[in-house]
Specification:
By secondary structure, the chain is an alpha/beta fold. Helices cover about 25% and strands about 30% of the residues. The two termini are about 25 Å apart.
């Protein structure tokens, strides 16, 4: 690996290295050639678009090179945050018998508190929590949100409304929504996600994380009926739904007000009408705490980091 100055990467470095450098320097770095002359720039968004297009993080930085400056579309209004915290967290029982999953503590703070603080760093100062299971505990713990630097509102579901149905309980805000499952532990840059959404003028932006799955068999690589070679037990990589979204205000008209409704249904309905849905690859830490083993792993990671 070659030396990297704070806002510069060499043309022989990788898009992963460019992402790390950009994260520390206003989300943009200059790429220079062997003669020291600038070749162009690479932004946080350029790297994520390259990953969404199938480029690995060890691909050369020139795969994401931008020779013209990127012009972002500023949001017309500040975003509003929505955190879905109504689930029962069945897979973590008995831990969640008396404490809802988003209120479990990781590294000295509840999961939902971490998310609210991350929202705040992205310019969100008003957050709605959709509550159902053990709803009163959220208000007892978080209050009006003043200690977290936001105004908190609570939307009580009379019935379980699935992952998007409770959006019908929101008042008419006329502002973009930053929506997340309330049980995620992540260091994602929500401000970058909002910028990505506005740049692409998307109706919805879906965050995706890379998931690796090992095929336990030899895969036949073919051209028509001809075998080219056998690849033994390859690992495939897919972008999967990370449970975080940006919604433009107009998409809320799709959400029915009288029944459960999935976020995937909302996305499909929006796509069916020909509206744009963007994919924002998450290259930062992300975990949905889907099992006791995963929860213990995350707790261990934060404990080690705090001791070091």
């Amino acid at each position: 690996m070659t030396e990297t100055t704070p806002a510069t990467v060499q043309a022989d470095q990788t898009i992963g290295e460019a992402f790390v450098a950009a994260a520390a320097n206003g989300r943009v770095v200059t790429v220079v050639g062997t003669d020291g002359r600038p070749l162009g720039t690479v932004t946080d968004a350029d790297v994520r678009r390259a990953v969404a297009a199938g480029k690995p993080l060890d691909a050369p930085v020139t795969a994401a090179l931008r020779r013209e400056p990127e012009v972002t579309q500023p949001p017309a209004a500040p975003p509003v945050g929505v955190l879905m915290v109504g689930g029962r967290g069945e897979r973590l029982r008995p831990l969640t018998d008396k404490v809802p999953k988003p209120l479990l503590r990781v590294g000295g703070a509840a999961i939902v508190e971490r998310l609210i603080r991350s929202f705040r760093l992205a310019g969100v100062d008003e957050v709605y929590l959709t509550v159902n299971y053990l709803a009163d505990l959220f208000e007892e713990r978080l209050g009006d949100g003043q200690a977290l630097g936001v105004r908190l509102h609570y939307l009580r579901e009379e019935q379980a409304m699935d992952t998007a149905g409770s959006l019908s309980l929101l008042p008419d805000l006329g502002r973009p929504l930053l929506v997340s499952n309330g049980d995620l532990v992540t260091t994602v840059d929500f401000a970058a996600m909002l910028e990505f959404h506005h740049y692409h003028r998307a109706a919805i932006t879906v965050a995706g994380v890379q998931y690796a799955a090992k095929v336990p068999y030899g895969v036949l690589r073919t051209a028509e009926h001809h075998l080219l070679h056998i690849e033994e037990k390859p690992t495939t990589h897919q972008l999967v739904n990370a449970g975080m979204y940006v919604l433009s205000p107009e998409v809320l008209r799709y959400v029915p007000g009288d029944k459960p409704y999935k976020m995937t249904e909302l996305i499909e309905d929006v796509l069916h009408d020909g509206l744009s849905v963007s994919v924002f690859p998450v290259l930062e830490r992300w975990s949905d705490i889907g099992s006791k083993e995963e929860f213990e792993r995350v707790l261990f990671e934060f404990a080690v980091e705090e001791e070091s």
